[in-house]
Amino acid sequence: MRLLSRIGRLFVIQWVLVRYRLDEIVLAIHFFRPVHFVFYLLPWNWFGREGARPLAARVRLALEHLGPIFVKFGQTLSTRPDLLPPDVIAELEKLQDKVPPFPGDEARRMIEHSLGRPVEEVFAAFDSTPLASASIAQVHAATLKDGEDVVVKVLRPGVEKLIRRDIAVLRMMAALARQYWSEGRRLRVVEVVEEYEKTVIAELDLLREAANAAQLRRNFDNSPLMYVPRVHWQHCRADVMVMERIYGVPVNDAARLKQGGVDLKKLAEMGVEIFFTQVFRDNFFHADMHPGNIFVSMEDPARPRYIGVDFGIIGMLSPDDQRYLAGNFLAFFNRDYRRVAELHLESGWVPADVRIDEFEAAIRAVCEPIFQQPLSRISFGGLLLRLFQTARRFNMEVQPQLVLLQKTLLNIEGLGRQLYPDLDLWDTAKPFLERWMARRQSPRTLLKKLRRELPMMMERAPDLLDALRRGALHGRRRDDGARAELEIVRRELRALRRGLMTVLAVGVALIAAAIAFF
């Protein structure tokens, strides 16, 4: 039954593409051009379809129709003006916080059911008209009894069922790709879908999002870079979250920011610093930084500050991945392509039998043309395409644990492109990484790490000594047992030798008797 349901969902996806006349785009791909004439023979082209609207609007409507997973895909694309035309970007930006809302009365009922009290007992005022509506939840303005302005985030009804259904379809498609597509195993499509599933399912728990917000707020406490609103824990549940209401300008409203006196170059550089601070200093980064989730405080235009919202997707790296990534970034910024190649081999991201000189030359050919270029002159789409081609040539496997980081880096680059297209990403990021690496390797940091781990080491020392004694005793017993087994084998060999000598003596005697007899 589940298989039939997934197949049915694939038919629904196809039907939506047909309804919004997006199937013709698929058939326009170079691979399908020889059979493009078939498009005009398809029965659904003989009847009216959603063709009156512009293509960009049809793309957005189709993604909205298909549900949360596809809306999130559109949100990611909305930050890529280097990949898509302006009219499509303008429509996809509506997916960031203008997804069609569900009724406010239904949101009110869900809040009352979750908190176990009428809305009037919790809030002095509650606006049933949502402030913003996204793919998984929508937000309502409210005022607490003490007069503080807050926002109330409520999950969409039935959203978990929809997401799990589409994840199941993605799993099925990934399994087919791994089995029948030559690149499926190298790209680790199944693992990537599994990683995405964990990420998107985590978004359905608003208590987890509240905890993420609290951690980020501590990380940036009194920071001039970013502000994170305060969570009101007493009003938070798995499907409802209440937090401080913030007031700011959307980060992609460059005209309003410039009019307010904000230095857009400085703001773009701050965004890059925030990203690297979260990834390397804190190892806890906001992984859904599309423009709908980032605002700018205008209280002091000379010292603007980012304001983050929507903390459902948070990324973290293992210490090894963090170290290798920092080394890769620095080697890349220094154009040390040999070191980039070595780090890929050391981390196991490429097979051990790859010739390092060939890999180094391939990396240089991809990366060298983009150095010292502002964002406005770099085609990251083309860069990624060439990187994928290089990865395929050297059998480099996709690292699922880095997918969130790559997505976030693309979001940050997209924001920087919108704010200040001439931003020099390299000069902005390189000094931060050099300082981070220097601090990481400084005696002070090593001493702090030793001080942190020494109590645990002292506590475990007796257990370690006991384990060593047990191991030594076990080794002696094993040696004693081996010697005993060796002695048994020796006795058996001696017995076998005596038997052979006896047989040989009897044989010689019988031969001598036979000669004498005859």
Can you give a write-up of this model?
This protein has 518 residues and is an alpha+beta fold. Helix content is 59%, strand content 8%. It is built from 19 helices and eleven strands. Helix 1 packs across helix 8 (159-180), helix 8 (159-180) runs antiparallel to helix 9 and helix 13 runs antiparallel to helix 14. The longest helix is centred in the last third of the chain and has 75 residues, at 443-517. The protein is globular and about 65 Å long. Mean pLDDT is 76; it is low at 29-39 and 495-518.
Task: Offer a few descriptive terms.
19 helices; disordered C terminus; 4-stranded mixed β-sheet; alpha+beta; 59% helix; 5-stranded antiparallel β-sheet; 518 residues; single chain
For the biggest sheet, the summary is:
5 strands, antiparallel
The proportion of residues in beta strands is: 5-15%
Mean of residue pLDDT values? 76
| Bulk shape | globular
Given as residue ranges, the uncertain stretches (5+ residues, pLDDT < 50) are 29-39, 495-518
What order do the helices and strands follow? HHHHHHHEEEEHHHEEEHHEEEEHHHHHHH
Distance between the first and last residues' Cα = 91 Å
Count of separate DSSP helical elements: 19
How many β-strand stretches?
11
Structural class computed from helices and strand pairing: alpha+beta
Whole-angstrom Rg:
32 Å
Helical percentage: 55-70%
Secondary structure elements and pairings:
Elements: H1 2-19, H2 23-28, H3 55-66, H4 68-77, H5 86-92, H6 104-115, H7 119-122, E1 123-126, E2 132-133, E3 137-144, E4 149-155, H8 159-180, H9 189-202, H10 206-219, E5 226-227, E6 240-244, E7 249-250, H11 254-259, H12 264-282, E8 285-286, E9 294-297, E10 305-308, E11 314-315, H13 319-333, H14 337-347, H15 356-367, H16 380-393, H17 403-419, H18 425-440, H19 443-517
Parallel strand pairs: 5-10
Antiparallel strand pairs: 1-3, 2-3, 3-4, 4-6, 7-9, 8-11, 9-10
